[in-house]
DNA sequence: ACTAGATCAATACTAATTCTTGATATTATT
DNA sequence: AATAATATCAAGAATTAGTATTGATCTAGT
């Protein structure tokens, strides 16, 4: 018997959880119950500045970016997320206050979403998820801290090289414009960096 | 790279209402209170099949289309709406049942939205809006009936000519693909119609 | 004064979308 | 049965949107 398209889109999440901490059948059922799949199209907002972030998102396929628009109207990419990553404005989600951030689909993207209330229910029904989400957020925290450190301590060139190391799969998947915005430099400068580097290592 | 913030321009809606039936200050205040601006980007869904239509939408700028996907996977445009028009799946909105229709942005589109509950409150606070919304829906009804009649009684060529008459501002604003889908013909056939017509009136 | 980087404007390149055309089929009408 | 209206499929052509590069010039911090 083959699973319907919706059920099968939950598989990657079950696998992800099992990989962190194995789930029993009842726990897997809870995942099926509380996470709902949703497709976003390229350029579509998952979260828009001013709205409250109401969902925890797990990415099944595609790519999202979280960014902030500053007073001058410039955008700064906070992070990209692809398959098997999470995307959420935690601050807004827990405080239930309007977000200052935007989340947008870079490609058509399938996510699995759980609402605040359902997440709370999930924690009560299956306390193991407290552990799972703790671990998962710790992972994100570490990545974030690494990125901060990287950012305050390196030149643009170093940051770009580190980006290539850390996210080789993103280099050809994202426009350089976006990568520049992630690195905190202008697209022009990134272009120059790249041409300089390719002259050095032909 | 700039992606400006959402400007809250409720003015066009106030003007629209005043044009139908003049509002007093208190009534204008209610409009400011209950309608909230929201920006949709090109290709973004305002309503997706299966979701419940939770908002009455007034279009400040841009263009939306409502369409249905049939069993064969073909899409049929029910209508387009631009500046100063309304867009909603009334059936889903009032029944609170999942919609079979889709609403999608053809361009970046700014809308003013009011939810079911807020609309109810508005009606109670300012009964004049009952009259306003009655008139407004009557207008839409008339347009719809005209379109139906057009559709069952004319050839594709006649429908196309009528479209040009009725929506001259849409002809160059929308891809022919979409116009074909509105007229209920294939884009290829529309293309042939057009070239035939332009040979007749050079 | 030098380096890392920004800004602005022009141009080049690439990919996505849209439009047209030809060949051939289907369906409804007379 | 013949004809007009319209669909389908496939291939190219044309257009537009999005992205990348380059040159010239500017600025802030060592």
Automatic annotation (TrEMBL), chains A, B:
- Span of domain Cyclic nucleotide-binding: 19-124
Q: Which InterPro entries match?
A: cNMP-bd_dom (IPR000595), cNMP-bd_dom_sf (IPR018490), Env_Response_Regulators (IPR050397), RmlC-like_jellyroll (IPR014710)
Q: Classify the source by domain of life.
A: Bacteria
Q: What is one GO cellular-component annotation here?
A: cytosol
* Keywords, comma-separated and alphabetical: Kinase, Transferase
- GO molecular function per UniProt: DNA-binding transcription factor activity; kinase activity
This protein's record includes keyword Transferase: yes
What Pfam families does the entry give? Answer: cNMP_binding (PF00027)
Q: What is this protein called?
A: cAMP-binding domain of CRP or a regulatory subunit of cAMP-dependent protein kinases
Protein source organism: Niabella drilacis (strain DSM 25811 / CCM 8410 / CCUG 62505 / LMG 26954 / E90)
Its organism's taxonomic lineage begins at: Bacteria, Pseudomonadati, Bacteroidota, Chitinophagia, Chitinophagales
């Amino acid at each position: 018997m083959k699973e319907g398209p919706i059920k099968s889109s939950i598989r990657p999440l079950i696998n992800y959880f099992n990989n962190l901490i194995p789930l029993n059948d009842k726990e897997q059922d809870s995942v099926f119950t509380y996470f709902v799949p949703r497709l976003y199209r390229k350029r579509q907002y998952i979260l828009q500045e001013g709205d409250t972030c109401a969902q925890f998102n797990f990415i099944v396929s595609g790519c999202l970016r979280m960014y902030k628009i500053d007073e001058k109207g410039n955008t700064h990419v906070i992070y990209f997320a692809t398959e098997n990553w999470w995307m959420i404005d935690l601050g807004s989600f827990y405080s239930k206050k309007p977000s200052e951030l935007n989340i947008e689909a870079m490609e058509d993207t399938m996510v699995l979403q759980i609402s605040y209330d359902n997440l709370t229910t999930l924690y009560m029904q299956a306390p193991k998820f407290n552990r799972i989400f703790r671990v998962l957020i710790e992972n994100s925290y570490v990545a974030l801290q690494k990125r901060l450190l990287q950012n305050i301590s390196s030149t643009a060139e170093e940051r770009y090289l580190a980006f290539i190391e850390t996210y080789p799969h993103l280099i050809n998947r994202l426009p350089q414009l976006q990568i520049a915005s992630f690195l905190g430099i202008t697209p022009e400068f990134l272009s120059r960096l790249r041409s300089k580097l390719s002259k050095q290592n032909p």
